[in-house]
UniProtKB/TrEMBL annotation:
This is Trafficking protein particle complex subunit. Gene3D superfamilies: Trafficking protein particle complex subunit 3. It is found in: Endoplasmic reticulum; Golgi apparatus, cis-Golgi network. The keyword Endoplasmic reticulum applies. The gene is Trappc3l. Homodimer. Belongs to the TRAPP small subunits family. BET3 subfamily.
Length: 181
């Protein structure tokens, strides 16, 4: 008797609209629970960090990306593979300094804010999508890269684009990754 071929596990995708609406309800509840916008921002960032630390394993298993040797390679993978895989968008990338450790991801469209037209009244310091910063920071830390991730511009605050700034805090040790011959 022959055995049936092993099936790959199927990943069920959650409906994007359901996720975005659920996220909106979460932010609304946090705004009710916390008076201070900074507390809401910190909570969303911490929540995103937890998601990022768990998501990186799934990302590495499903994406089949190779080891990166520069920060620009890492940013390209985040923009072209990770954002496309999980949010269905591909942000553009900009480098901000000559040492090539400061980058921006520029989102023409932010799926998390798709159904949001403006921030709630009196919540001008709220960073509605702080979750994204935490996810990126958590994922990078799991592959041993310390980074500072912040929103530089936000359409919900009247800016022309949504821009996430990523600053790598530690120099990548390229010697560590060279193969011995």
């Amino acid at each position: 008797m022959s055995r049936p071929a092993a099936k790959k596990p199927e990943y069920q995708k959650i409906n994007k609209d359901l996720f975005v609406l659920t996220y909106g309800a979460l932010v609304a509840q946090l705004c009710k629970d916390y008076e201070n916008d900074e507390d809401v921002n910190r909570y969303l960032d911490r929540m995103g960090y937890g998601i990022g630390t768990r998501l990186v394993e799934d990302f590495l298993a499903r994406s089949c990306v190779r080891r990166c040797h520069s920060y620009s390679e890492i940013i390209d993978i985040i923009a072209q593979v990770a954002f496309k895989m999980y949010l269905g968008i591909t942000p553009s990338v900009a480098c901000h300094n000559s040492s090539r450790n400061e980058f921006s991801l520029i989102l023409d469209k932010n799926p998390l804010a798709e159904f949001v037209e403006e921030l709630p009244a009196g919540r001008s310091a709220l960073c509605y999508c702080s979750l994204l910063c935490g996810v990126i920071r958590g994922g990078l830390e799991m592959v041993h890269l310390a980074a500072e991730v912040t929103f530089l511009q936000d359409r919900l605050k009247g800016d022309s684009v949504t821009e996430i700034g990523i600053t790598f805090l530690k120099k990548l040790d390229e010697k560590k990754y060279r193969r011995k011959k």
